[in-house]
Amino acid sequence: MFNANLYVKEAGYDLLSLWRTPAFFLPAILFPVTFYIFFGIVFNFSSGSSKYMLVSYACFGMMGPAMFNYATAVASDRAHGWLTLKRVAPMPFNAYVAAKYVSSLVFALCIALILFVTGGLFAGVELYTWQWLALLLVLLIGTLPFALIGLLLGLCLSDKSAPAVVNLVYLPMAFLSGLWVPIQFLPEAVQYIAYGLPAYHYAQLAHAVIGTSQGHSIWLHLAALVGFSLLLVLLVRWRYQRLSH
Amino acid sequence: MKKILLLLAAVVAVLAIVLNLPTPKTADVANDNSFVIGPVKIFDGEKWRAEKFVVVHEGWITELSMQRPDLDLPYRETQGQVLMPGLIDAHVHVWGDALKQSLNFGVTTVIDMFGDPSFLQQHKAARAETRQAKHADIFGAGYLVTAPNGHGTQYGIPVPTLSEPSAAPKAVAKRLDSGSDFIKIVYTHAGAAYQHAPSISYTELEATIKAAHQAQHLAVVHVADHASAMDAVKAGADGLVHGFFDRPANDELVQLMRSNGTFIIPTMALYEGMLRGELNETLLTAENLKLPASAQTSLNQSFGNTAFPAHFYENLLLTTERLYQAGVPILAGSDAPNPGTAHGWSLLAELEMLQRVGLPLESVMHAATAAPAKAFALPHQGRIAVGMKADLLLVDTSATTNLPALFHPLAIWKNGFAL
Predict the structure, then answer these.
(1) Euclidean distance between the first and the last CA atom of chain A, given in angstroms as a whole number
(2) Which of B3, B21, B158 sits opposite A116 (nearest CB)?
(3) Chain B residues touching A49 at Cβ < 8 A
(4) Which residue has the higher pLDDT, B42 or A180?
């Protein structure tokens, strides 16, 4: 039986709990913004134009919290036995997962808006309205595979190790996907690694909106992201089943 | 109910933010790229013209006339100021926002002497179009031809290198395939006295130039000393993309360049930065100009504090002077954004250097307009003539006698659109 009300309530409470821990959400939101201002605007030594840099850093800024929010929250809920309580409670467990995703979307939305406004005000980025909107949608929807990576890590790791491991996945993946330095300036071998990383396909889709992608078909990137997501869903299910035993 | 209202308010807030983000200004009727302008004093890239009016139709120059033509086009009335072609910087390395920065100084076309081929490819189509653009047109060499670990390989971009003469035709073909408009070669004479990166051999230089010519493309050579310049000219180079200062050009070199029709891009403003480092500050103070932060960054960098003998600066000027006197084509190029230079600005600084050498004003203006257009066979750039793009500068009447007028353009048109 599907009870929408439960989902809405769980999502609302998850947001509320986030709202009550500003020590978590403020740094999480400010980190990508600071990073963008430092390396995308003030010390922009790489070769991107202002809108190129905004798109790259927006991808960087949005995929991170999606992973962090899931990984740290789920790992700590597990550690504190909260997850066990959730599972024995009559509420569908999917509501718990969905609520976390809603929270990370709200996160991502805030980050995107702050980055857009920062880019527009201080870096002179000018895009057509449809581009701003399309970019926002692509960036938001595209966080799904990263949220799933976070969920998987959260289900696998202890609450202490989760943030460290997420960083170890997040930062190298961002670099190898060309989010800090445009990918054409990295050695050719990196290009082949990038094909295997969801962040690369995510970034290329976002770049396609402003016409600065590397020119591969957007369907290819879309297929890659959907493929990653499906694979991750399977892995998450498998891991979840194992937790049950 | 309260929750739904809250949600609605959030959606409205998000939309309000997104819809208010900056968008590119669309062409308004007042800034159409079809118009008649005049009366103006026209410098067409070569000489002063008698015509007083220019007709621009959809970004193309379609007519020069003595009287204001009776056409149903918007009329931009002027008071006899100087209209000249947009400037061409014949030696740059562009990426990021460089094309935009250049345009802000009236540089409407740049010739890239080594850069990412995909950047060049992305901007190629715009050269033959007159859509509204906020960036200069680019022609370029793409990857340069250099020795393994040679000059050009130190910037972190992987560059294919040349290590035997027989590989030259393939190296040239590969570059032309990736979109190079001409071939740029880095060469240093085997016995050069100064410290330098490994260089291709003279035979490799000759083979590369020959391969470029067989493929009907220009071959230009980076040199930094007299002996290397001599080799390059002997090997048949179409142009030298730098001057040199170890000694002034001797008669043999001057005569050879004259008879071969080899052009030179002396890049004296760049060298001035190494040898003296006074030009930028003097000029900026004199012209009361403030550069944007982006330009300031590369301008403030330096090559390091190698001390050069004082007469090197004289050698530098003397070389350009002798070549100019002999009728060798002189092209203005900045080599921005190397230390001590900035896109756009440094071309103006180079024009000042050309004036210091003693070139008359018309020749200085020619060096940054029709001369590079002719040397690189640019189809629609660098001249005011029928069939050219309306890349134009309107400068003060004093430009007929004074260079500084160019430092403060009254209007810049790119593809017929006012900036």
Answers:
(1) 25
(2) B21
(3) 96-97, 100
(4) B42
Per-window interface: A 11-40 vs B, CB < 8 A: 12
Per-residue pLDDT 10s for chain A (245 aa) are 567 788 888 888 888 888 888 887 888 888 888 988 888 787 765 556 788 889 998 999 888 888 888 898 889 888 888 888 888 888 788 888 888 888 888 888 999 999 999 998 888 888 888 999 999 999 999 999 999 999 999 989 888 898 899 999 999 999 999 888 888 777 778 888 888 999 999 999 999 988 888 778 889 999 999 999 999 999 998 988 887 65
Interface of B with A in 276-335 (CB under 8 A): none
Describe the strand order of the beta sheet including B411-414 as a list of residue ranges: B41-42, B82-85, B392-395, B411-414, B417-418
All residues of chain B having their beta carbon less than 8 Å from the beta carbon of residue A132 are: 18, 21, 23
Q: Residue B183 in contact with residue B175, Cβ under 8 Å?
A: yes
3-state secondary structure of A162: helix
Distance between first and last Cα of chain B: 51
Other Cβ atoms closer than 10 A to A40: 30
Q: Does B116 touch chain A (CB under 8 A)?
A: yes
pLDDT tens by residue, B48-79: 999 999 999 999 999 999 999 988 888 898 99
Whether residue A134 lies within 8 A of chain B, CB to CB, comes out as no
A50 vs B21, B97, B157: nearest CB: B97
Between CA A234 and CA A228 the distance in angstroms is 10
Q: pTM for the complete prediction? A: 0.70
In this prediction, residue A46 carries a pLDDT of 57
Question: Which chain A residue lies closest to B293 (C-alpha atoms)?
Answer: A42
Contact A127 B18 (CB under 8 A): no
Q: Tokens 């890349």 map to which residue?
A: B391
Whether A120 and B21 lie within 8 Å, measured CB to CB: yes
The residues spanned by each domain of chain B are 86-143+241-379
B1 contacts in A (CB within 8 Å)?
none
Domain ranges of chain A: 4-244
* Among the partner residues B18, B25, B158, nearest to A187 by beta-carbon distance: B158
Assess contact for B333 and B264: CB atoms under 8 A.
no
Lowest mean pLDDT among A210-224, B15-29, B326-340: B15-29
User: What is the tens place of the pLDDT at every residue in B160-176?
Assistant: 899 899 999 999 999 99
Structure tokens at B22: 């900056």
| Closest residue to B96, CB basis, from A49, A113, A127 | A49
pLDDT score recorded for residue A81: 86
What is the ipTM for the molecules in this complex? Answer: 0.76
A204 CB-contact burial (10 Å; exposed 0-12 / middle 13-18 / buried 19+):
buried
Chain A residue with CA closest to B158: the answer is A187
Give me the sheet containing B107-112, strands edge to edge. B87-92, B107-112, B137-140
**Chain B contact for A184 (CB, 8 A cutoff):** yes
Minimal CA separation from A146 to chain B, in Å: 23
